[in-house]
Design a protein that fits this description.
By secondary structure, this protein is mainly α. The protein is built from three helices and no strands. The longest helix is centred in the last third of the chain and has 31 residues.
Length: 70
């Protein structure tokens, strides 16, 4: 979980600043993500996909709740 200060800092960033940060983080972490055997790499990407799917489902549920409360 991110601290409130970090969240506030991200909210103050422009879209281009957030994109630049995301690209830098990707560049820094990609070598570790693809290191190892093809099975290791596939497993890491499967984990990322599951986490992304869960995050997206949670966001959709939250959006649906706000629409129901209108």
């Amino acid at each position: 979980m991110l601290s409130q200060e970090t969240l506030d800092e991200y909210r103050r960033m422009t879209p281009s600043e957030r994109l630049r940060l995301a690209l830098r983080m990707t560049q820094e972490n990609l070598p570790a993500l693809v290191a190892g055997s093809p099975e290791d790499t596939a497993r890491r990407f499967a984990i990322l996909q599951r986490e992304n799917d869960l995050r997206n489902a949670n966001m959709l549920r939250a959006i649906a709740k706000t629409r129901q409360n209108r």
